Amino acid sequence: MSLADELIADLDDLGEDELEETEENKNNDDDLLNDLDDLDDLDDLNEENNSQNINTDKPIDLEEEKEMAIKVALTGKDDVQSIAKLASSKQLKDIMEKIEYFKSIPRTEYHNTGPVEEDPEYDTIVKANNMTADIDDEILIIHKYIRDHYQARFPELESLIPQPMNYIRAVKEIGDAQDLTQVDLRKILPSEIVMIVAVTATTSIGKPLSKTEIKKVLDACDMAFKLESDEKKIFEYVESRMSFIAPNISIIVGSSTAAKLMGVAGGLTALSKIPACNVQVLGATKKTNTGLSAAGVQRHTGFIYYSDIINRTPPEYKMKATRLVAAKVTLAARIDRSRESMDGSIGRKLLEEVEKKIEKMQEPPPSKTIKALPIPDDGPKKRRGGKRVRRMKESYAVTELRKAQNRMSFGVQEDEVSGIDSTEGLGLIRQSGKIRAFQNDPRTKIKLNPKRQRMMGGSSGATSGLSSSIAFTPVQGIELENPETAQQKLKEISDRYFSGFKSKK
């Protein structure tokens, strides 16, 4: 074989290698898209594993899996265009063209009549709102690409600026500059972070990059900026158009959340037919990692849970506020479906009610009222002793007779007294001998005041000086009476009638 034939064969082999490399790149691109699509199904896989009680020694972390998938997808990729294709995709271009077209057409009252699903902008709004999630994923991929390629230049920058877009802006400003004091980072970073970055750059172990590497990194930064700009345009468009399609829902939870709820439910009409308990969980995803406890995982957290009004609520009241907001969103959806209150007045009223109730939840419980001490009672106290109390106790005291009736002797039959229809036992009344009468204590005997006794005419031992034996009778007039004669007459009378008794003096 001649030299020319060998060169031709080498060229043929080179062409085959390039063709194989092209096919390999295409296959790698397809693998990248498949890996990113598989990330969305990771939650369902975790849920299935939990249902089958699969216990793994190493739990699955969603963030680590996502980082691993992006790292695998970026393996062998030197061009950002080969990994981030959303910026140049036909889907994003069509959505942006429709947004610009509908922005140029002014809204009229005709567009606010009829079902909202028949609105020409409704489909564009839902698709554009869903596209924002894809844009966020694409920005993360670009951030990983820039971080891997710029790490050789400034490896400490990744830990100093963890936010993806701030990191990309800092890389764009720094570029391949050797002296960071000549780079103005104050317009994109806080002053304290700028100072830390400048001090760290003086001791950095990074090496300068080639012009080709710097160009690739800067192109990736420009692509991230373009995606961020498109995302802002989508947010502005959705926010402006949701005020016409669902104004009351947009006022309560925001235009972005309202568009997500309508997209998942299948339209405003379908959303208005869903009860509040199901509206609360629209967009909920299973986030329980295999092998980990589900005690700290929030359940029933959908799009409403991540809305602005719930994010402003303290964590301990978020679930209660979510149920409250879901109920108001259901009412607002039915109002928007009937094309009433297009100015959003009812939505603002519902939002005020929600905010007042959330504020009421956060109020501390009423403090205990401090009661004043009672007024001291300086009046007369209740006497627990004295003559009156002793007399009362004596009147209710148990007599010896009653005590004997309440007692019984062992082995001795008790005497009973029968009445008309009842029988009462006598106890020891007839067995205990003589029952003494109740003896009063002479010390506690009530004594009459001597002055009071004289006033009542009581007798005393001394004979009054006015007493006399002379008596005035109608027969004889003045008669001198003998006391012994009177006693003798009384005795004679008693002997006749009370002959069996003797009179006692």
Overview of this protein structure:
The protein is mainly alpha-helical and 505 residues long. Among the domains are: 1-50 and 60-75, no CATH class; 84-244, Helix Hairpins (Orthogonal Bundle), CATH 1.10.287; 246-289 and 300-363, Nop domain (Serum Albumin, Chain A, Domain 1, Orthogonal Bundle), CATH 1.10.246.90. It is built from 20 helices and four strands. It has helices at residues 3-40, 42-51, 62-74, 90-104, 122-150, 157-160, 164-174, 191-202, 211-245, 247-253, 255-265, 268-272, 276-279, 308-311, 318-337, 345-362, 387-395, 400-405, 450-455, 483-497; strands at residues 415-418, 423-427, 470-473, 477-480. The protein has a two-stranded antiparallel sheet. A two-stranded antiparallel sheet has the order 3-4. Helix 1 packs antiparallel against helix 3 (62-74) and helix 9 packs across helix 10. The chain is elongated, with a radius of gyration of 55 Å. The model is unreliable at 14-29, 35-62 and 288-292 (pLDDT under 50). One of its GO terms (cellular component) is U4 snRNP. Its main location: nucleus. Residues 7-23, 30-47 have a biased composition (Acidic residues).
